[in-house]
Design goal:
Layout lengths: L22 H37 L5 E5 H6 L9 E4 L5 E5 L2 E5 L4 E6 L4
Antiparallel strand pairs: 1-5, 2-3, 3-4, 4-5
Length: about 120
């Protein structure tokens, strides 16, 4: 059975593991793949930057932590599902980090915002 090109569907001549018939088809495929992944990354990075700016505005320049109401974050269009990483402390509480700022549900309607200290 002959393999077909992923892009133009022409029959491929040559090695049995080839997936493109020409460098044009190979470049076309990878160019569009990069575009799709870049578009998604730009959108998500925009959400992260917006979330970071909201947390930074609320915690202030000189404070290391502050409690705020959840609806205050929601009113500023904070997207709770976007964060860079998670950390669970010894008490089982999970911190949602966005770079060096973190937030944690403190109660049903309060959020604790924390700035990570530099060592």
């Amino acid at each position: 059975m002959k393999n077909k090109c992923k892009i133009c569907k022409k029959t491929i001549i040559g090695r049995s593991d080839k997936i493109f018939c020409s460098t044009y088809c190979k470049n076309y495929y990878h160019k569009h793949l990069r575009y799709a992944t870049k578009k998604a990354a730009v959108e998500i990075n925009g959400f992260l930057k917006r979330n970071y700016a909201i947390l930074l505005e609320l915690v202030g320049k000189n404070k290391t932590q502050r409690k705020v109401y959840r609806n205050l974050l929601a009113n500023k269009n904070f997207r709770f599902k976007y964060h860079t990483h998670l950390q669970t402390n010894s008490k089982g509480k999970t911190y949602h980090y966005i770079y060096d700022l973190a937030w944690m549900p403190f109660s049903d309607d309060e959020i604790l915002i924390i700035r990570k200290r530099n060592p």
